[in-house]
Amino acid sequence: MVEERAGSFTKRSIKTSAKLAGLKMVVSMVDLTTLEGKDTPGKVAYLCRKALQPAEPKYGVPSCAAVCIYPNMVKFARKFLGEQSPVQVASVATAFPSGQYPLRTRLDEVRRAVADGADEIDMVINRCAFLSGDYAQMFDEIAATKEACGPARLKVILETGELVTYDNVRLASEIAMQAGANFIKTSTGKVSPAATLPVTLVMLEAIRDFFFATGIRIGMKPAGGIRNAKQALAYLVMVKETLGDDWLTPDLFRFGASTLVNDVLMQIAKTVDGNYQGADYFSLP
Questions:
Q1: What angle do CA 225, 66, 145 make, to 5 degrees?
Q2: Which residue is catalytic, options 24, 75, 155, 185?
């Protein structure tokens, strides 16, 4: 049933001005990401520039929501963006992507990233604890990470590709929200499958029910595998029909992506100019 309902969101027709508004909204919700061993301060500065101004001013495209980088790159992003930037600095932490380091080491990594200027922390859950049925340990580790974040917002990555069932995804979502997550996130992007519409729908429904029970709005971030504008618009339709317009904001919905933005920009140029531009006209993320 989840898969059938998720599939229905891909069949919606969005055209003309509504499509253009949707595409610009997608850009504003992207956490522009680079998580590679070859990342350098120069590459991070380039990513920040791309996030600040994704396209030529004539297209009226907003800045991206954030750049998402490894902890040792946070200080370079913060220096480039400054303190009042509309683009947030997000950093993966807690032994990303495995989550298999000692808790003290993981918490130290979080504190250092925040001290260097991270606005948001993307942590990975302890899948070993969850799949072993030790839900209390998972809860306690998320709560400890939330405390270590201080003023920074916490996104909790479930790594849904390793959770096996939709029931597990639902339970992990509930535990993460109860433990203090500001966002729940599907994936690290390092495991296949990453974000899918059915998995995201299960998480959105968990967010909806948590809101009805507590009045607290939790954000959602699908990450990994979302590569084109058509896919991204289907996610927006699903958010609108599951959670409503209140969640159609970068404060409550993000895309974790490295290649999505350029396809969206090509679609925006097509809508505005009436013809496609080649991929070579857009800088690589």
A1: 90
A2: 185
190 given a catalytic annotation = no
Q: Under DSSP, is residue 113 helix (H, G, I), strand (E, B) or coil?
A: helix
For residue 274, the tally of other CB atoms under 10 A from its CB is 7
Q: Note the pLDDT of residue 10.
A: 86
Summarize pLDDT for 147-178 with one digit per residue, the tens.
999 999 999 999 999 999 999 999 999 999 99
Find the catalytic residue in 31, 116, 119, 122.
122
pTM over 0.90: yes
Tell me which fold the domain 2-281 belongs to. Answer: TIM Barrel (3.20.20)
In the chain, where are the structural domains located?
2-281
3-state secondary structure of 60: coil
- Please list the ranges in the chain whose pLDDT falls under 70: 276-285
185 is catalytic: yes
The single residue of 75, 146, 221, 263 carrying the catalytic annotation is: 221
122 labelled catalytic: yes
